[in-house]
Design brief:
This protein is of the alpha/beta class. 27% of the residues lie in helices and 27% in strands. It contains seven helices and 14 strands.
């Protein structure tokens, strides 16, 4: 099966992760945490995941001219993602503040920084099989990618917001689905431990459940799901198989700590299935 070519236009962050027994209540301080710095950002996470799953990936994003940029890019470099179109700005590199409890639940606050400096004229799309965006960059940049994608356009409509562009496939969780004003076309909806469904014009056309795993950290499970669904569809797999593989990738990511550190390879997905 030939490796599909995918261009990811999206965010690049450095995740600052505190891991504690439980999440604090409002106004409460917890002092038993451990701390890690892990490359993240939905765009970068999905680019790394797609590369590990066998795609040839180009990343178009923006980081700052600061000391956080290189740690934020480390996972992309390690995965062999093409960074020739990377933009640098005077804004600080995007940061996500993440707290994770012993059950794998998390709360996340993102300071987007340089991600907001990725403008439409920064995005020159190469010839490729597909383009994948999320919503952690300016919406006009996502719209530009949608209108100019040389192949299929995939949108992970997260975090939820208004006025999103049309896509060949839109990927959301059950909460983001509530914010979608237009539910026409193909929608992949993740349902946590219940798996995922694929809808076409509101009609269910595929359903899959994830293999059982012990949840450790759900930070990038949705990114693993999204990347695996996109790569599987670009490989020409049928919808049911693509959804099953995506659920398996998400489950593997949820069973590991961190964002990019948790993303599975194609071989790991094959082995779990």
């Amino acid at each position: 099966m030939a490796a599909p070519s995918l261009t990811v236009v999206g965010s690049i962050n450095l995740d600052l992760v505190a891991r504690a027994v439980r999440l604090p209540r409002p106004g409460e301080t917890i002092t038993d945490a451990t701390f890690s710095r892990i490359p993240g950002g939905k765009g970068a996470n999905q680019a790394v995941a797609a590369a590990r799953l066998g795609a040839s990936v180009k990343m178009i994003g923006c980081v700052g001219n600061d000391e956080l940029a290189e740690p934020a890019l480390a996972g992309l470099v390690e995965a062999g993602v093409n960074l020739d179109s990377l933009k640098r700005s005077d804004s600080g590199t995007g940061v996500a503040l993440i707290t994770v409890d012993a059950e794998g639940e998390n709360v996340i606050v993102v300071a987007p920084g340089a991600n907001l400096d990725l403008h439409p004229d920064d995005v020159v799309l190469p010839d490729c099989n597909g383009v994948l965006c999320q919503l952690e960059i300016p919406i006009e940049t996502v719209e530009h990618a949608s209108l100019n994608a040389p192949g299929d356009f995939f949108l992970n409509a997260a975090p939820a917001r208004d006025g999103i562009p049309a896509a060949d496939v839109t990927i959301v969780n059950r909460y983001e689905l509530e914010s979608l004003s237009n539910r026409n076309g193909v929608l992949a909806v993740t349902l946590g431990s219940e798996g995922a469904v694929l809808l076409e014009d509101g009609v269910e056309v595929a359903r899959a459940t994830p293999p059982p795993v012990e949840a450790v950290d759900g930070t990038a499970a949705g990114d693993a799901f999204t990347a695996c669904l996109v790569v599987s569809l670009l490989e020409g797999r049928d919808r049911v198989e693509a959804l099953q593989r995506a659920c398996a990738a998400g489950a593997i990511a949820a069973s590991r700590f961190g964002a990019q550190t948790s993303l599975p390879t194609k071989e790991e997905v094959d082995a779990l299935l």
